[in-house]
Amino acid sequence: MYKNLAAALAAALLSLPATSQPPALKIAWVHVAPLAQAGWVRQHEEGRKAVQAALGDRVETRSVENVPEGPDAERVIRDLAQQGYGLVFTPSFGYMEPTLKVARDFPHVKFESVTGYKTAPNVATANARYYEGRYLAGVAAGRMTRTHVAGYVAGFPIPEVVQGINAFTLGMRSVDPAAQVHVIWLNTWFDPPREREAAMTLFNQKADVVAFHSASTAVMAAAQERGKLAVAYHSDMRFVAPDAQLLAVTHHWGDYYTRRASQVLDGSWKPGRFWGGVREGMVKVGHFGPKVPAAVREEVLARQRDIGAGRLNPFAGPIQDNRGRTVVAAGQALSDEQILGMDFLVAGVQGTLGR
């Protein structure tokens, strides 16, 4: 009897429908430049890999690289939404408007405009306080320069880039009050030949250290070729410039991306704005080159700890712009809103916005 009952129960259990795992959340990233060994796209790709490693078969991730800002971006973002991607990250400033446009047509898809500033019911924005790393790089540049001239190869004259130029200059002049920073605008994020040409021009203008806000390693390679120093951006670039790298300002997206994907999975995702920096582990300096003395490394890392602890604010006054106007009084500091809308260049910067 018991054997028959056991057999009956086993048969009944086998006849029940198998419990199915919920479908994986499909997550996509859209990139403005090709995926390389280092740089902006590489750091976001590392973030994608961190999400996949942390969440396993609960997610399915992919990236689309080398998508120009503008109509092509809208087409790619729309195609991803149509393919059933439930979370789409668009990490480039020029993707902001295309992201918003597609989001209106796909209200159930979550979008994250990385470096954008406009939100919507299904669009969040996120960015890092890159300027904190720039200030620290400026301190190192100020200690290492012999000509008191640095160069800066800049993408577009948007606030994010302007913040970096100003913070770098303020950091440099905090240890070398005579320092000057020459700026060349590219009006593109990725054009290795022009990035290299700009760096060479700056070296010809007596710059012996350069920083850049663009997507390739061309500036680093130019510094290695000319026997100068350069600040790596986004990633460690010593593989390109083993002798020329001063330090690297690196950006880390894995924790943020994993947290946001987890929130979509558990239903707690909400639109909003996120801005993290040294304190949150999104911005770090390190990977010092062989020419940097231990004392300079220690000074820079000590200031990094001060920023993380809230003891040092790169945009605390007094600050003057490069036309002699006081923009931050002594005892004051710029608010986040003022930093996000920055439209001036500080004293010591040679150049104007957009030129």
Please give a handful of descriptors for the protein shown.
355 residues; alpha/beta; 6-stranded parallel sheet; 39% helix
Question: Could you give a short description of this structure?
Answer:
The chain has 355 residues and is of the alpha/beta class. Helix content is 39%, strand content 21%. The protein is built from eleven helices and 15 strands.
Walk me through this protein's architecture:
It contains eleven helices and 15 strands. The chain starts with a helix and ends in a 5-residue tail after the last strand. α5 (130-144) runs antiparallel to α10 and α7 runs parallel beside α8 (218-226). It is 39% helix and 21% strand. It has a seven-stranded mixed beta sheet, with helices on both faces. By secondary structure, the protein is of the alpha/beta class. The chain is globular. The mean pLDDT is 94.
